[in-house]
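[Automated response] Your request has been received and processed.

Submitted sequence:
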Amino acid sequence: MSRFDNLIAGQWTAGTSYAPNLNPSDLSDVIGEYAQGDASDVEAAVAAATAAFPAWSTSGIQARFDALDKIGSEILARKEELGDLLAREEGKTRAEGIGEVARAGQIFKFFAGECLRLSGETVPSVRPGIGVEITREPIGVVGLITPWNFPIAIPAWKIAPALAFGNCVVLKPADLVPGSAWALADIIHRSGIPAGVFNLVMGRGRVIGEALVQHPGIAAISFTGSVGVGRGIAAACVASGKKVQLEMGGKNPQVVLDDADLNQAVELSAQSCFYSTGQRCTASSRLIVTDKIYPAFVEALQARMAKIKVGDARAAGTDIGPVVSQAQLEQDLSYVEIAKAEGARLAAGGSRVACHTGSGKEGFFMQPALLVDTEAGMRINREEVFGPVASVIRVSGYEEALAVANDTEFGLSAGIATTSLKYATHFKRHSQAGMVMVNLPTAGVDYHVPFGGRKGSSYGPREQGRYAQEFYTTVKTAYTLA
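Generated structure:
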């Protein structure tokens, strides 16, 4: 059995213990044993990053460009191999895994370019004979805590800007999916970046994450994960004066109006709700459908769901792989039962199934669930499930659809299916979400534009694109007497 160590100060460092990384499509398949660090590993990683920061933060932009560009090139060259690893450990299909790896490579390439696009301002002072320069500088050592659902893309979109803008990094990946993060760390390690600039410490969130958040040498924390954990991190960071960036939950609405193209609305809803096993923070889990199209929409979506093939994530022909873990599977199934107890009707799926490939391998497979006759106040429409579970809410028209769409503590992504320019324009302006999709799935965003939400979904500056500099840099204003 292969063992994979932490990366601290440029050296592969043994963990205090090791944990198996299981394939959710085949529970007999152990990908490897990955290090479980402790607070002393965090201490060593922060010390290494702190020591590396003065030189890295003032290094030439060409050196930073070369390193990030090299990382991106290797990721793209190995996208088939790394995509297969991702599918094996996380459960999204191999095609989706390859797509995610490609995105990670593109992110590093984009931020390599950002190294060369750093800019500032020179403005006149209101006082004669004085010049003013406004520049951006790195903030220091950054702690990055990433989730299991995008095990290479989310680490990439945090690591790449952090390094591009001259910061040093300690990464704590999700304990469920360490393999992709370790592979990325190995690529970064061989890129020519100096020892200590990037560090990987794997292990339990309550151990490694807590140590990062509490460490006085960490200047900022970027976290993607659950609402409860995120709020705790925010409170701790405010108390200690750390900069903090949070991406948390979603209960994303997909509105379908009477005038929508039915086939288009059904397809984008299926993609939003069920693909990637619904394990995307941007997935749509509330389908808000107006009266006249409601019966035809439900019938057509049921027919579309019947064609979805659930099976081994790496097998040809699989549309949806397994849920990531036993705990997540139990949570998904429990929400189906909660909804039924509240009066919802299960119109399709909603049960654990055997692998459809005929392999007989045991995995965490679930048939996507469609719940109809639901009310906006039901728990199924208020709480994030994070699985292939969608509910349908019937409304009278656009005005009620908009009100229901906004009636949530979350505000990450929202979609509308309509052929009306009037309603599309109004929805884009009045949807209380950070990202709005018109006649597109709610899940699926570009890497060069800002990502983030409102209300309980996000806190702090946006991620990705040029907006990433708002978190990973600090502004300095300098005055000079001529």
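Summary generated for your ticket: The chain has two domains: 3-248+457-481, 252-438. The longest strand covers residues 26-36.
If you did not submit this request, please reply to this message.
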